[in-house]
Amino acid sequence: MNTLTNLPPLSQVIAAHGLSARKSLGQNFLLDLNLTAKIARQAGDLTESDVLEIGPGPGGLTRGLLAEGARRVLAIEKDTRCLPALQEVAEAAEGRLRIINGDALEIDPLAHLTPPIRVVANLPYNVGTELLIRWLTPRDWPPFWQSLTLMFQREVAERIVAQPGGKAYGRLALLAQWRATPRIVMHLPPGAFIPPPKVSSAVVHLTALPEPRYPADPKILERVVARAFNQRRKMLRAALKGMVPDIEDRLRAAGIQPTDRAETVSLQAFCALARLMPGGAEAERG
Question: I want to staple 27 with a disulfide (CB 3.0 to 4.6 A). Which of 21, 121, 157, 195 is the partner?
Answer without folding.
Answer: 21
